[in-house]
Specification:
single chain; alpha+beta; 3 domains; 5-stranded mixed beta sheet
Length: 276
Amino acid sequence: MGDDFSDVVKRALAGRVGHLCSNPECRALTSGPQDDPAKTVNVGVAAHITAASPGGPRYDPELLPEERSGPGNGIWLCQNCAKLIDNDPARFSVGLLMKWKNDAETEARSRVGKTATFTNAPAVHLEIGARARISPIIPREWEQSDFILTEDTEECLIFKKADSSRQVDIPKTFVEKIHRFGNSKPARIELSGRLQWLSRKRIFDLLPEKPPIGAAGAYGIGKDVDSAYPLRFSINGTFGREARLPEILSQGWLVFYDSDGKYLRWGDQILVIRWL
């Protein structure tokens, strides 16, 4: 049994950062309303900076149990970032997580009681003709393609894919952040959801869910189906083992994405199609 956080500690960690993920590259809001007016939804996690039990990420045997389960050893994160830091403890050190924690609390303290200033238009402004890469985008091989801004309206940024004639309209409310790297490199646009290729419609569309971070989201978001699903819905494809997918894709196959933006999984196999 590890030294887990009490509910009191969890509430304190969430409240001290305004219920935002403490990862400075994320800052996702982790709580909000359910359809039931008496309930809320929470996607936040009180994560241990040093693990709750031996063998866990960044475990520190010198800590007392009350220190290990205390608020000083906790950081508030969204579920994706909590999984990320525990899957790569060498990258996400104690020192780095403490900095995230302190910076997030300092930022929250500076906002308390102050009226929010909305500056959506300046935050998402790009020059016409600017090149950008969009993230997250599924499938990920498209992340290496540039999009060219053709129009900037009051509500939308309108892009054309550099290597095709496909157009993408991105509402400014869907843009979380724009990273600019000068004139020599394309800007990076971070979305609050994902830009998703839909095989059946042969278009890119915007969808609200972000894919999992890391290898788990390499092909986006999947759904389990039975082996007869392609035939029932007139999908001309075949299932290939996920372990062999890089090899299969190198032979000219593409992952099939349904109208909801999800790829189709049957056991350990994923549906792929030939692009015509």
